[in-house]
Amino acid sequence: MDKIHAVYNSRFNYLNEIKISPLSRAYTFSDSVYEVVPFCNSNLIAFESHIDRLEKSCDALNLSLDTKKTSGEIIDLISRSKLIDGYVYYQVSRGIDPIRSHIFDESLTTETFGYVVDHTFKSQKLKVMICDDLRWQRCDIKSTSLLGNVLSMNEARNHGCDEVIMHKNNLITEGGASNIFFANNDTVFTPSLSNNILPGITRELLINEIKNLGIKIVEGNFELKELETAHSIWLTSSTKGLAQVTEVINLETKVVEDHNLFKKCEQIFFKKFLSGS
User: Fold this and answer.
1) 5-118 maps to which CATH number?
2) Backbone angles phi, psi at 60, to 5 degrees
């Protein structure tokens, strides 16, 4: 693998050369947030929306963020990498403690870290597993505290699955690293935003495009049984784009592979954001 371009506290280097203190609060407490910013055909996808969401995550944790500097570093990383398609991972933590302490010192200096990697945006077909939503109650914050996701997704992998669909008290929330959509007849459905659901950028982009084309979309609270009768299910994220679910291993479903409504949504998204036209 070629050397990965990275930045730590505004100093650019290769990823393998960057050293971070074990007393970083990102390491000891997950006292940090992050963003994944995709680019395709050398074009940043919804860049301002990603920066805005990162700023909101920082505000929720009372973290200081220089959005102008962060934006510049992300653009600089992409430029240095000379990559055409890929994404930037960018993380903001509260800083480095003199010694581990739950109560942080107000004088800590914000710690930032990012890197850029190659990524191919392509159609995907996913095998998924239904699981309980084990996560904390502020999933609307894009926190690095992802242990619930990690446990569930690795359990799913042990069953030959690519992803999970989570539920809390039988209400669908989201995927392990994605938002969920499903379709019945001529209508698209997706869970409403709440503290249990991250406001996905790809989710927002797709909803806007669907509405612009006059396709009916309903946001609401949906039980698992809604998936049993769904004609199509798909997951969205900054790196997946739109990925259709072809099998749910622990739920009886009637999904149709390459359902016409999914294909229409996929084509809409690809043409608008990934074609470079």
Assistant:
1) 3.30.470.10
2) -65, -30
